[in-house]
Amino acid sequence: MERENGKKLKILCLHGFRTSGSFLKKQISKWDPSLFTQFHMEFLDGKYPAGGKSDIEGIFPPPYYEWFQFEKDFTVYFNLEECITYLCEYITANGPFDGFLGFSQGATLCALLLGYQAQARSKFRDPSICDVAYKDPIKAKSVHFIGDKDWLKLPSEDLASAFDKPLILRHPQGHTVPRLDEVTTNQLRNWINDEVLCQPKVGVSVTEHGKDHENEVGSTNPNKVENGV
User: What residue numbers bound the domain in which 220 lies?
Assistant: First the structure.
């Protein structure tokens, strides 16, 4: 399906913890290229250099980045507000963007930004960022990939529940950007055609983890994306 004005939708892509925009680009290269023909994908590196060992060392070359830091139980976060500010400033300077694609830590940020926008750009300081962002169901169209063997499967389910009428695509793998079989590829293609490309003013976003990381695709109004999400 071709867009009437021939213009591609601009998608901001946010990578996982201690990886990079280049690595996320490689991760989604396993998907059918025809899924991306109507999108301009922009891959951003995290705000901070990786503060420790990366899981992709020896698999993909450095440098590696992280968006923010956290305690092992995901109850305490560091530099999250600074990261949100960084992304909002980037979007304002380089947008408008029509939506997001994010994996793991990047997916968490996609959901926070969409929720942040829905709450009229509320300030995150007290109550917590999550309390603000997930106060009401997020109305943006979204697709969530959830792995049966993902150690963050339950948080991923939790994140999907924060959205209004999400499309959930399940796969038998773990915490990874999955390879898509023919059935899942067609489901995603139909969602793109029916929910995104046929709409006059919508965008798209993808993510994988939970409220602390996930894999989701969501869409939002590009006029609003320009100034905050």
Answer: 9-225
